[in-house]
Design a protein that fits this description.
The protein is an alpha/beta fold. 39% of the residues lie in helices and 11% in strands. It has helices spanning 20-27, 39-52, 59-65, 94-98, 116-125, 130-149, 166-172, 176-193, 223-230, 252-263, 281-296, and strands at residues 106-108, 156-161, 203-206, 211-212, 234-235, 268-277, 303-311. Helix 6 crosses helix 8 (176-193). The longest helix is centred in the middle third of the chain and has 20 residues, at 130-149. The structure holds zinc ion (ZN). Residues 77, 79-80, 82, 92-93, 95-96 line the site of zinc ion.
Length: 317
């Protein structure tokens, strides 16, 4: 009997052995770095395949087999991920040249198409965080590789999830950017724990700095309306009642770690985390609000990056 579950293999919670392609990609900072490579993980995958006859491949294998070409970014704007025409000679696209995004680079696992599109849809529409966690781990490890490639060695990374409104969390049953960011945090810490980690003294902390007022979903809106729709929706959480005061959202412990990193001369990188980046309007608003939230606690971060599971080409999504 074949067990055909609607839940893809990653939801099983079992670590999976990376395919050879994944392992090769891992060497270059691609998917599958350091995940599921243990003897226990391989044994569990074998059991899964032999006994359950699982019909869906493990997440790392699905991503690796899909290619997710890192080299593709050479034909894309490094800030927003939009395609550049063959005759486009500037590094950035026209939109980013005209209004530069406040982040240095965008890190994604690939285009919003198979196999990432169904993964993203499943992450945001099912109240189970396991798939978000595993996807986040892979994204975190790609972020580490990109930081190293960009010459950012031994950074302290603050992972700032794009906030979701309370109404939307209730409706979906999951705060999916936060779940992805938690997975990234775990992935970065696992990488750091490896003796041969190329990322050096990298440390990562989850920094859910922001809350969000409900507005219409960005997806489905025209590009020109997205900026207007998201503007001013993100703030640090406020104390309730009459005070209206903001809550200091970065814990005293993490604030001390930031101060220590500065004293040690290590770079501090704030990374805005989301599921899909399209126009970058949401990421811009998160950067603006995140800067404001940090500055309320006397912290100024110059280096901002954006990490998103997928990037969508206009006018899709
Ligand atoms: Zn651009």
């Amino acid at each position: 009997m074949t067990v055909r579950s609607t839940i893809p293999a990653p939801m099983s919670g079992a670590p999976a052995a990376p395919a050879p392609a994944a392992a090769a990609a891992g060497a270059g900072g691609g998917v599958g770095v350091g995940l599921g490579g243990s003897a226990l993980g391989r044994a569990w995958s074998d059991i899964e395949a032999a006994v359950l006859l699982v019909t869906c491949l493990p997440l790392e294998q699905r991503l690796a087999e899909a290619g997710l070409p890192e080299t593709e970014r050479l034909t894309r704007c490094p800030k927003c991920g939009q395609k550049l025409l063959a005759n486009h000679h500037a590094v950035l696209c026209d939109a980013c040249e005209a209004s530069p995004p406040p982040w240095t680079a965008l890190v994604t696992l690939g285009p919003y198409a198979d196999p990432l599109a169904p993964i993203v849809r499943e992450i945001k529409n099912r109240p189970w965080p396991e798939l978000a966690d595993r996807t986040g781990r892979i994204l975190g490890q790609r972020l580490a590789a990109r930081l190293t490639a960009a010459g950012v060695h031994g950074p302290l990374v603050l992972l700032i999830p794009v906030p979701t409104s309370r109404l939307r969390i209730l409706y979906r049953g999951i705060d999916h950017p936060a779940a992805i960011a938690r997975g990234m945090c775990r992935g970065l810490r696992e990488l750091h724990a490896e003796a041969t980690s190329p990322s050096g003294n990298l440390t990562a902390y989850l920094a859910p700095l922001l809350s969000r007022r409900w507005r219409w979903r960005q997806a489905g809106l025209a590009a020109w309306r997205r900026k207007e729709n998201v503007q001013g929706t993100m703030t640090p959480p406020r104390l309730g009642g009459l005070t209206g005061r903001f809550v200091p959202t970065l814990s005293a412990r993490i604030a001390r770690k930031v101060a220590q990193a500065r004293q040690q001369g290590r770079p501090v990188v704030a990374v805005v985390v989301d599921d899909v980046v399209t126009t970058g309007a949401t990421a811009r608003e998160a950067c603006r609000a995140g800067r404001a939230a940090l500055s309320q606690q006397g912290i100024s971060v110059r280096l901002w990056w954006v990490a998103s599971v997928a990037r969508a080409d206009l006018p899709s999504v």
